[in-house]
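Hi R.,

Here are the chain sequences for the assembly we discussed:
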Amino acid sequence: MTTINQNTGSLSGRSRVVSNKEMTFAERIYLPAIVKGFGITIGHFFKKSATIQYPEVKRPIAEIYRGKHVLKRDDEGRERCTACGLCALSCPAEAITMIAAERKEEEMHLYREEKYATVYEINMLRCIFCGLCEEACPKEAIFLTNEIVPSDLHRSDFIYGKDRLVEPLGKRVDVTHRQTAKVLAFKKDKNQSHNS
Amino acid sequence: MDGNYILYKLILASVILLISLLVAMYSTLIERKVAGYFQDRLGPNRAGIGGIFQPLADGLKLFFKEEFMPGSADKFLYILGPSLTMMIALLTSAVIPWGNTLLINGTEYSLQVADINVGVLYVFAILSIGVYGIMIGGWASNNKYALIGAVRAASQMISYELAMSMSIIAIVMMSGTLSLKDIVDQQHGMNWNIWYQPFGFLIFIICAFAECNRSPFDLPECETELIGGYHTEYSSMKLGFYLFAEYINMFISSAMIATLFFGGYNFPFMDDLNLSHNALTILGSLVFFAKIMFFVFFFMWVRWTLPRFRYDQLMRLGWKTLLPLAIVNILVTGFVIMIKNHL
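And here is the predicted structure of the full complex:
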């Protein structure tokens, strides 16, 4: 328990009583204070700069960093998403919208399920990268990657459609780096108390 | 006064002009770099190695910016303002002794454009005109912020000129000459004026900051209150001229400080080096340049250390502290000289 400082009545013990005493001569001519200030600034001059040269050097990110989304395909290259809408429902920022359609006979090689999303959009300015969409997805279709959403000039350019979300066939996106043992253990048992 | 002599002076004047412009140009980069380092940042480093092309990029940008003039501005004065500021900033460099003499084919060539016997007076005369450039620019803009900035600049520069001249009078009394070359020659070796006039130096350097409108006396252009002050309405290269003139002023002020108090091109043990006259002159000029660059750095150091003065504090410091101090300095100097003469 914190005790209140008897002298100052302060909880943190860091507060100081304001003093209005007359300044001494040394204080009034300011020069000693100015010289002291020069000492402080020149000290910073020779300190190592805190700058990270961004595009060349990147700040280390966490193992389970949640960045830009990806819509996965299955082993045969078919889109996994079935447009159930659970991700949009779970999204606290309401960043996800989609339009569903029924798969045609000739589209069997494109979509894994009978129903699929013709339009799937995530507004990256609304998204808070919480990862609830990934957790809600029953088809393991949406994942968050360790990629950073790049900057852009227009708000409309931040609404990512399927062209930028679905993983390209030739360049599959690896999402396993986030699936650490701890995360997988958590996902295996979705009936943990705080999930119900 | 033969053709050779005139040609030599022409070349020297052009070289000094070029060096002043080059130094001012790179002062902008140094300022930003120094500011960065003082704040634990790196400063501009993308244009060329270590940002070496940054001043060129900035200059180009200023050239290609839209040339805007307020509709209600006085057109002639609006253009005259920055031109005058720039011209006056460059005029002072003529009397500064940039080095000793060079011996070429038996003829002595001075590294000073004009060794006039009233050099100190000339510098102060030019400095006093400097306020017109700002005042005219601020007035012609027909903008209240610009006008307030200009009025502030005018009163500040006039106030600090007094104390500045007073602090120099002590130096003039000691050396008995107004010629800058003679003042420098009297500070041979390590016999610098700073050892005799530390108070005079303190007053002079504070006034130099005020005259250059540099922080902590940058009230005429304080960004937060006056959105730029006298150059609020200026854009493109006219703004560039104002900003550029500030850096030239800084360079010239540093040169004046080095000349008057730190022995100009003199340096310790210069007689023990056994160098030829020309080599010594060139080395002296380099030393002079190093001194100037140190004071340019000092200007920046002060800018990124001290907060800005309030206007009444500025006036009180100028009239009630520096001016009396400068007068006391004159009296003490005169007293010491009198005692020395009687001993």
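DSSP finds eleven helices and two strands in chain B. The interface with chain A takes residues 34, 36-42, 301-302, 304-306 of chain B (CB under 8 Å).

Let me know if anything looks off.

Best,
T.
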